[in-house]
Design a protein that fits this description.
Distance between the termini of chain A: 27 Å
Largest interface: A-B, 31 and 31 residues
Order of helices and strands of chain A: HEEEEEHEEHEEHEEEEHEEEEEEEEEEE
Oligomer: homodimer
Helix content of chain A: under 10%
Strand content of chain A: 35-45%
Number of helices of chain A: 5
Largest sheet of chain A: 5 strands, mixed
Amino acid sequence: MTTESQSQSAAAHPAGTRPFPGLIIREKSPENLEFPFSALRESIVPNEHFFIRNHFPVPQVVESNWKLTVEGHVERPFELSYAEICELASEEVTMTLECAGNSRIFLEPKVAGLQWEQGAVGNAIWKGVPLAAILERAGIRKGAVEVVLEGADNGEITKEPKSPGKIHFARSLPLPKAISREVILAHTMNGERLPPAHGFPIRAIVPGWYAMASVKWLRRIVVTDKPFRGYFQTSDYTYWERREELPIQLLPVGEMEVKAEIARPASREVIPADSFYKIRGAAWAGEFEVTGVEISMDGGDTWEPANVHGKPEPYAWRLWDYNWKTPATPGSQILMARATDAAGNIQPMDRDSHRGTYIVSQVQPIEVEIRAMTKKSPEDHYAI
Amino acid sequence: MTTESQSQSAAAHPAGTRPFPGLIIREKSPENLEFPFSALRESIVPNEHFFIRNHFPVPQVVESNWKLTVEGHVERPFELSYAEICELASEEVTMTLECAGNSRIFLEPKVAGLQWEQGAVGNAIWKGVPLAAILERAGIRKGAVEVVLEGADNGEITKEPKSPGKIHFARSLPLPKAISREVILAHTMNGERLPPAHGFPIRAIVPGWYAMASVKWLRRIVVTDKPFRGYFQTSDYTYWERREELPIQLLPVGEMEVKAEIARPASREVIPADSFYKIRGAAWAGEFEVTGVEISMDGGDTWEPANVHGKPEPYAWRLWDYNWKTPATPGSQILMARATDAAGNIQPMDRDSHRGTYIVSQVQPIEVEIRAMTKKSPEDHYAI
């Protein structure tokens, strides 16, 4: 590629809107696509760049036939059409969705599952009807403990762990979470009608939980008087944890953990020695607010605060940056970022291996090369 | 073998006490031994003939050091020594213990797991302290839902499904079952001190449930306010079942199902044509009483009642027999037995494959050969 074609490309796209490098294919069928995290520019990820995590083919939903049923341990089961849902009072939530397997590619030893790097995560503005309002209308009966959300997507899983024949995607929420105001049945994503790949007509949005809880193509809500033990919370999306004085347990993955990711530099990036370089990234903390991000250049011995943008709020990530005076001496350099949340959680350096293939939230070192150069970094062409 | 040696053998052992053919080895280490079901003679299986199902090596328990602790969601945690438990008021229960994987060898297609035939089952008289009395002393707190029973046996399971490192055997009971009077902490088995292989010093005895619930070498009782999700009820000892309108669930194996087994004839036994032959066996039904056993000679089209011994009572099996006038024509013959319980359950002919490797309770056909013979059956040497 010539210098001329490069500048043409730059001219065609104003600052901050460079041609998008495209989603990374992690699986072709069903479609599992990753947001290239190094392309992070703004807090809201556009719909067409948002990561896609499917377990089954995207179901063909005919809007006029589709119904959402509300049943189980309730006084008054009922159903709603898409038009009826869209007419109900809606609320908006800005929320970061992270796949519970994001960053899995960094695990050693290697584990099974889609090999997500940094970009099975995104932040969007979701608008919809509070689940609490729907449950109130149905009348939750005494003794209810959970709410099962079932999607229209279905199929048979023939890899281990195998599914018991054809199953639908489904996950449950404990009742207190289900009736908290922030859980919504979203019909709108970043101001647009929910795209088919993101769950049209309705997707549950469960702020603060890993994305498997935000069930797409929602077709059924079932209130239960016993904890639900469906495939996606017993065979898949589980991890081992020791709680209190009990023997270790296999628990359904739930709340997100505090985590910072570095978008720039990318791994193996070559950076000019003895210059200024802006490190950038995002940090999120599930149900809590991100209160700080720190950077370490010495393997975690000392940490310097980064500039964290926006104001602390739960559920949504915060972008951050750090103005780095690069070393004068060429060579390899390890960068680390770690986040802290309002509950006092600090992103850990290590990981409990009992977590298996999920909840990969430990500090992820990035290795770059410092080289004596006169050329400026391309970052100078645009600002956050 | 000569006729002479046969009669010597018979002479040395009075009727009903023929030399015991020995337990069948299903696994050498840890020791997993099966009762040869064709040796069934009496309702109570002697301790030395009782099947043994171990997950880990038998723990070396020093009686003077051993303690049973009671803790968790209780008002007054406490511990008991072996001597203290033996001094408490005891109750007796006659109970059939069946391994949840009994009869697995008959499954097609073949499944993983120990290949038990008919004899991972036995009936014994257990004596011990009601768990309810122990829990009452500790004072169950409001909100308690389960009681976890933990054994002293432990190790790492390296076959799939792998354990998360070294674990102890543990299982939980729902609170209503745990506080029912019939669940006891047994110190005595058939009038003898509990043998080491059967859980010395204390084994929980959970009548009506498959044997994995009857935790051996009991060392800890933990009351919980959430359902317990330990290895032996999430990764192992589970099965798929559709309940109510919910998506299919992976449930912990629990209550035993109604089931009859034929002890005599054995599979492939040669039986004289046109003679009288006594078919014998046992039947059990978990938490319910066995009310009837029927025999079919025509593949399940018609059924004839068998003689069921003893009186109906829950938890314990009942022996049964059927006086069969064998066919005049030589050839292959299929025998079937099925049991019925007081709750109206009839042992089914087929099995839901979602049960995987557990709860093998469908009718098990036995194939024998009818042959023109003058010789009498060896059964004539003894009676039930």
